[in-house]
Amino acid sequence: MIFLRYVVRSYSHNRSRKSGPLCIFRFNASVFHGKGMPWFGMDIGGTLTKCAYFETKSANPDLHHQETELIKIVKKYFKENPRKGVAGQADIRLQMDNVSIGGRTGSVHFIRFPTSLMDDFFAIAKKHQLGKFISALGATGGGAYKFEERFATELNIKFAKFDEMDTLLNGMRLVVKMNRPKEVYYWYNPHPDEQNCNPPQEKDHLSRKEYDLNDPYPFVLVNIGSGVSILAVYGPHNYKRISGSSLGGGTFLGLCCLLTGCTTFEEAIALAAKGDHRKVDKLVRDIYGGDYKKFGLPGDLVASSFGNMNLPDHRLNISKFDLARATLVTITNNIGNIALMWAVNLKISRVVFVGNFLRVNPISAKLLGHAMSFWSRGTLEALFLEHEVRCLLLHLLKHYIIGSS
Amino acid sequence: MIFLRYVVRSYSHNRSRKSGPLCIFRFNASVFHGKGMPWFGMDIGGTLTKCAYFETKSANPDLHHQETELIKIVKKYFKENPRKGVAGQADIRLQMDNVSIGGRTGSVHFIRFPTSLMDDFFAIAKKHQLGKFISALGATGGGAYKFEERFATELNIKFAKFDEMDTLLNGMRLVVKMNRPKEVYYWYNPHPDEQNCNPPQEKDHLSRKEYDLNDPYPFVLVNIGSGVSILAVYGPHNYKRISGSSLGGGTFLGLCCLLTGCTTFEEAIALAAKGDHRKVDKLVRDIYGGDYKKFGLPGDLVASSFGNMNLPDHRLNISKFDLARATLVTITNNIGNIALMWAVNLKISRVVFVGNFLRVNPISAKLLGHAMSFWSRGTLEALFLEHEVRCLLLHLLKHYIIGSS
């Protein structure tokens, strides 16, 4: 039974901390007491586990003590984690302060850690008896299925499981509403005549523009995590998974680790930022000597990703930066290609790209934006969200609290 | 003006050499004298240059001398080429003996060499004055544009250029007609209940079956060379390029060279044959702990290609065989995925796969065959050609002789 009503107020990422608290959910206090604090949501993906929790000073001294203990454990986990480079970390940029939930004010924190370190998480959670403080948490992602039993038996924590795609779509609506019209943006090309050229190496001429997603339906949603899921979304509760690809963020990172010796996504992106994929790939002009005019394929277009790497002379002439860039361009273009096909075939003009692959990765976002516009001759719009990482977790918290009350 | 008529007779690869000669083209002798012998056709692709030439004993002693000289040069080229592993070589398996062309009997030879060695080809051709023996040749592929001027100025050989896709499609018709009904085949699954499982690692349970492509239209043609071109073919002269991908045979070979240290396509395929991609990729069950039932994704499905390679422990546990296999499976599945999408969206039930990527590569052919059937629930047919490498070159020879006479 749902006792709650929730109110979403306009929220700007840069709003003054002096303004009143942001009220995401307002609800019956009994729910609050039933759940214990802090509320905890986990999206356990193939590569990354993303968490959100609400930290607040409770008016009730007992509750406050419990909450503080738990927060200590959570923080300790990230400090104790010994593996450099793959340790979990707080997404401080995403933190939402001065938020009011159920009449209390506090902060929503966002944390991520590699799912491969789940064993470490369990060890620390057991050591600090996490199950004493929270008995349940909202969970989604593949790991909500994979780890459910372990959380129950080893930590005595139950999962309130939520479907990943439902949660993502509802979370998108929540975040767009909170931050409209600033939340959604696209990459604008101020020189449309350059549309006639292949997406160039440097996309710095593109500028970011707000896009008011007032009436979003229908749109194609491309969720790029370890792999890729593509949905056709026709209404708030009307969508279907139309396609997917196993070539996603996990492929980019895995190949980069093998090819360059890097160890983290951030490192791989930083390498890619300094590289030139054209030394690695075979371009249309490498094969045709120029454009392939019959089919309108420009000379700068990649004809064969990594297509020069069978040649010893070319292999000697490349750096790890070039390899990382080529990997990023290969994966990004392939995703763009598949998304474009579906959008064209379904006659849907808006494609929204989300997922952790796009985090700290403006190269891919710009490439997708430019390529979608180029190949559709300007008829398709590639859209991105400012706070898309928050989407799923915020809704997960909300759904957890409301849906299971 | 065309003086010629040509006759295509049924031809079987294994037909007895004692049977009468195969007559591919019958034509006016004046054309023969105008062209010089042997007729030479080149398909200059991004990675490989494929050649066909007709070797025969001429009744005319002068002509015979010229032809013999040229054949010597051609053979010398392949012997002189010093680079081990990337040297050109005759496709002896494809050789067509006892063929009658214009009243003369001889053999059609097929040769390939890496396009990257074109400089070596020019050096030897100049040394042996190739231009003294032939003044023109039929050419297609991107290199027909890229190298046209060099052939003219350095070797005094003119190109009769033919569009690659026209030539390929006409060549397919020619070869299918010559060898019907044996030419076209598919991979048959004798255990259709296994359709419910993800395409397994080993596809040895699949058996090859003839497919009588009597009325071929419409079909989707997927041409996998260095990159991939996808055509929708509605009739003999009615087709359009609907899509493509830069992730093709060149990507497989390039990545394998980087990841395993191999140097040739054959070596890369041999490595892949011994590997297990499941050690490299992240599977649905690695993320979900089993199937992802909501979307009908089986646990064995690859969720993220190379998705385990960001983890040091996993990297220690793999071999170059596994890496080659994962690369092959990644590229093959991506091509199958894109081809499937187009076939489904265009409501075309037959997909014909051709291109040098499929040469000595039954793993990919079986994977494509099984995956197309699996994902379409048996409604799509993945078809292959027995002598598809011949298609384009045979038609190129034919078109060159007839079309420019």
TrEMBL record, chains A, B:
Protein name: pantothenate kinase
Source species of the chain: Apolygus lucorum (Small green plant bug)
InterPro entries listed in its UniProt record: ATPase_NBD (IPR043129), Type_II_PanK (IPR004567)
Example GO molecular function: ATP binding
Any one of the GO CC terms: nucleus
Family in the record: Belongs to the type II pantothenate kinase family.
EC number: 2.7.1.33
ATP-binding in keyword set: yes
Gene3D superfamilies with a match to the protein in the record: 3.30.420.40, 3.30.420.510
GO biological process, one term: coenzyme A biosynthetic process
Pathway participation: Cofactor biosynthesis; coenzyme A biosynthesis; CoA from (R)-pantothenate: step 1/5
Keywords: ATP-binding, Coenzyme A biosynthesis, Cytoplasm, Kinase, Nucleotide-binding, Transferase
Catalytic reactions on record: (R)-pantothenate + ATP = (R)-4'-phosphopantothenate + ADP + H(+)
Localization per Swiss-Prot or TrEMBL: Cytoplasm
Top EC class for this record: transferase
CDD domains registered for this protein in UniProt: ASKHA_NBD_PanK-II_Pank1-like
